[in-house]
Amino acid sequence: MERQGIIAAGNMLVDHVHRIVQWPERGWLAEITHSERSTGGAPLNVLLTLAKMRSHMPLQAVGLVGEDTDGDYIMAMLDQYHVNRQHVQRTSFSPTSMSQVMTDPDGQRTFFHSPGANRLLDLPAFDRLEGSMKIFHLGYLLLLDSLDLADKEYGTRAARLLAQMREKGYETSLDLVSRKGDPRYQPLVRPALAYLDYLVINELEAGEFSELPIRIENGEPIIDNIAQAAGLLLAAGVKKRVVIHCPEGAWCEAPGQPGEWVPSWQLAQNEIIGSVGAGDAFCAGFLYGCHEGWTLRKSVLLAHACARASLLCANAIDGAKSLDELTLFISENSV
């Protein structure tokens, strides 16, 4: 029987999202004009975006949350969107991970993050997963302390996990966290690449891994360097597809094939309500295309449409659209 469905695992948290009038100087006050709560982190954002697409594919979450009100909220959201939460465990040893997210008038976000229970998520949580599922997506490396630990055989425990998932027949996918100047990009990311089918990251993460400049002084992306970074990631072991996305577009490439720059649909600055979760929305659209066997370009176009929809709302989930709405938008706006 053909495998169907996507498992998303890793960082589960609650985003407390605030819109502020301006970013204050140190020691000064900034007014909050609006606040709301939403789910955050790669697995929740990807799964709930896919659920709102009404794709009818099986969806399963794997993670660890605290025995607190934020943990209750995450469980309720998974139930609301009919995502299997059998493998979302709870702990009394640590609170649910959370972020205070400040969004300025330009739509730029700043995160104050409390790692919480995500630090404790480890290999035993991934035993006895549903064997009929097709894709296993993990996010984010560099923010899962137990899985980022060294492993004598595989390099890291995350690499061991991804190797085990491939041995069990899953296609594997990975996302990273954006941490400027973090010296762990090479030692923590490289071991995992040999056990990956899909890698979906942004240009900042690609720059940290490749150590290549990604933008020129005026802010424009250096597409040649983004392409070079994708080539380095494929050479390091990614089996099927690498996508490096940024607001202007995405470079996508597969082994043995020429890469391609796919521009995004641009929004005016005053149209962007918030960028929280836009990268995860992009990932959800891309993984849907991979799951369905779409071409690389078609998968990236859906990813762009998902990210655009996300930018029109303050949190990571409210902007998500149905697959019918997304494909209609693409058909009406493709060049």
TrEMBL record:
Output one GO MF annotation: kinase activity
Q: Does the keyword Transferase apply?
A: yes
Tell me the ranges covered by the Carbohydrate kinase PfkB domain, including all copies. 26-319
Pfam families with a match to the protein in the record: PfkB (PF00294)
A cellular-component GO term for this protein = cytosol
Which UniProt keyword terms apply here? Answer: Kinase, Transferase
Establish whether keyword Plastid is in the entry: no
InterPro entries hit by this protein = PfkB_dom (IPR011611), Ribokinase-like (IPR029056)
Tell me the protein's name: Sugar/nucleoside kinase (Ribokinase family)
